[in-house]
Amino acid sequence: MLKIHNLHAEVEGEKILKGVNLEINPGEVHAIMGPNGSGKSTLASVVAGNEEYEVTEGEILFDKSNISELSADERAHKGIFLSFQYPVEIPGVSVTNFIKTAINQIRKAQGLKDMPANEMLKKIREKSAMLGMDRKFLSRSLNESFSGGEKKRNEIFQMAMLEPQLAILDETDSGLDIDALKIVADGVNKLRTKDNATLVITHYQRLLDYIVPDVVHVLVDGKIIKSGDKELAKKLEKRGYDWLKEEQLV
């Protein structure tokens, strides 16, 4: 589904990604861990099409098509979803109106008519019930005065409504207590199918107790230096990253 080959990227002349290689197949969950400043969030932003970052080398293939030159909205229309580490507040735009607009823009890009109102309402009811969301929540302005947990649950609700092929969760566990973490993870697990894939970016192994990855990658200084199963995440939790850096020097 996603194939990244020798990806180099920089921002304002500073090189951040220095040759990332990554392949994710349908039905898989991959996790990326690494120390601060290693390039994890940059990788998420580059795959999603953030124009602040300049790709200087390499390519990104999504569903076997090169998307390196596509804009962020074109990538979203193709089925890439990014859950932000710090979701922005949009006063005056309700959660429901925001998601209606997003869905219909994707449908428009695919040559489809707007989703009928009754079908949209049915889907909103189904997905909000699945995630245990209070219906009053949907009439509030997007992320305005939301707690950290509410913001992250709202991101998962958007993911449920949009049904992307590839969901990238950029430190979704940031600032969450254990109860909120379980709710978010449960939502991600319920949305997992054999046809979609998830890339989880996290600092902490605890999230991976609830969203169990097929593969864990370690990103250090702009490169993936090691990959393994979920046991690698547990090892990182105990030992940190220095032992991996030492391995690279041997």
Automatic annotation (TrEMBL):
Residues 2-246 form the ABC transporter domain. InterPro entries: AAA+_ATPase, ABC_transporter-like_ATP-bd, FeS-cluster_ATPase_SufC, P-loop_NTPase. Keywords: ATP-binding, Nucleotide-binding. Coiled coil: none annotated. It comes from Mesohalobacter halotolerans. PROSITE patterns: ABC_TRANSPORTER_2 (PS50893). CDD domains: ABC_FeS_Assembly. The keyword ATP-binding applies. This is Fe-S cluster assembly ATPase SufC. One of its GO terms (molecular function) is ATP binding.
